[in-house]
Amino acid sequence: MTKLQEKWNELADVKDVLAGRDWFMGTSGNLAIKVSDAPLQFLVTASGKDKYKRTDEDFLLVDAAGEPVEATHLKPSAETLLHSAIYNKTGAGCSLHVHTVANNVLSEHYGRDGKIDFKGQELIKAFGLWDEDAVLSIPIIANHAHIPRLAEDFEEHLTADKGAVLIRNHGITIWGKDAFEAKKLLEASEFLFQYQLALLQIK
Ligand SMILES: CSCCC(=O)C(=O)COP(=O)(O)O
Ligand SMILES: [Zn+2]
């Protein structure tokens, strides 16, 4: 199996699991996985597809600028520039973006603070935060319709090989060293969001 096929299958498997969680409503969401460093090339979801289905047109290979490596009728995700920024600025190997009700509601609720903090929650350990007083702080940025402008704000938070950014009333983009880590961080974040939303609802 070639590296490209291996990475394709890895991303397709992650996509299936996230689809099982119903995290791709209305064709929302996009996923990417790095295939090579020199030249930098990554697979990204084709734009506007029904991400609940598994087909051989789900992903296409793009370069560091997010442009297709080969002629294709497929369009890279509208948010490919965010994934490009991740691979250009960090050592991450996989990046995931989903829209959920919980991440949207909390991004609006805490939007003016520019971040949401989690403390005293077991699942922040997924981010490597093991101290009793540790705080997981997830930045919240404005949802600019102009993707290069959105990418500009997003890039400011690309300070480590793993991380997460909430885009206000839009969704979360998360990255990690590989597909396993990115999925783990996404699941942990969504657990924390669902918990916080439930807590606000009973208060
Ligand atoms: C229909 S959702 C609006 C676009 C978006 O935010 C998204 O995540 C999906 O866009 P893509 O081009 O990656 O399909
Ligand atoms: Zn989106």
UniProtKB/TrEMBL annotation:
Residues of the signal peptide: none
One GO MF term attached to the UniProt entry: zinc ion binding
Key words, A-Z: Amino-acid biosynthesis, Lyase, Metal-binding, Methionine biosynthesis, Zinc
Cofactor: Zn(2+)
Enzyme class: lyase
UniProt cross-references to Pfam families, sorted A to Z: Aldolase_II (PF00596)
UniProt catalytic activity: 5-(methylsulfanyl)-D-ribulose 1-phosphate = 5-methylsulfanyl-2,3-dioxopentyl phosphate + H2O
Recorded metabolic or biological pathway in which this protein acts: Amino-acid biosynthesis; L-methionine biosynthesis via salvage pathway; L-methionine from S-methyl-5-thio-alpha-D-ribose 1-phosphate: step 2/6
Database matches in NCBIfam families: PRK06754.1, salvage_mtnB
Protein name from the UniProt record: Methylthioribulose-1-phosphate dehydratase
Protein species of origin: Planococcus halotolerans
